Sequence to fold (277 residues):
Amino acid sequence: MPAEPAIVLALADVTYRRGATEILHGVDLTVRAGEHWALLGPNGAGKSTILGFCGAETHPTSGTVEVLGKRLGRVELQALRRRIGHVDPRHRLTSALTVTDVVLTGLTGTIERPMRWSPSPAQVARARELVELLGLAGHEDSRWPTLSQGERGRALIARALISEPDLLLLDEPTTGLDVAAREQLLDTLDLLSETHPGLASVLVTHHLEELPASTSHALLLRDGAVVAAGDVGRVLTTDRVSACFAHPIEVGHADGRWSARTHRVSPTSRVGEPGRP
Fold:
């Protein structure tokens, strides 16, 4: 039998407290190379806290977190973070960098391009390859303020990929996108399973409609506790999603994409109807 893919991320019995308040309660999560996970749950469930562990930005109060084989608390964080790509649509860039320069900042881990740093010709060429791969051909020299929100999202994915990460984190990547731009970005994420087959990813969202078709696993989180985790088809069921959001939600799945709508319960038949007392 072929060996299982390597473990990229492992949370074991993780709790997290902020002051006297416990935010996460005994969370377990294992992500392997090539898997694409979705973290879903209502506001305040703890999704962003888990993503902080994944990005080696937050340490647990108790339990263990291992990222790319390194245990948090026993590793030099900057070196570890260089192996993690992070896509955040709230990117705080204020200057008018070109798309190519934005992508190159993924090599330095900075928002702006460092003043005394110059990329090699090979690095510039790679940045432009990624820009083209992610559907931005012709925009290599476009300035950040002139880009649509959807174009910015794809540029940020290219930025995350240029350092050849082993783990890609996506924090609500479709925030602020219209329907067309959302679909273009999700198509881009689906492409990565072909162009970067060993890359593992963790995507945070509130909405099932925002899951790429390539999503392989899911974790449902409510009030800091895991409702269900594992194979996406076994986790995203009507019963489990309804329990997670404390609301009757009917889950649909067609052509690789997910949907959710309020599950309407038929009104009770009136007394005196046939078959009723």
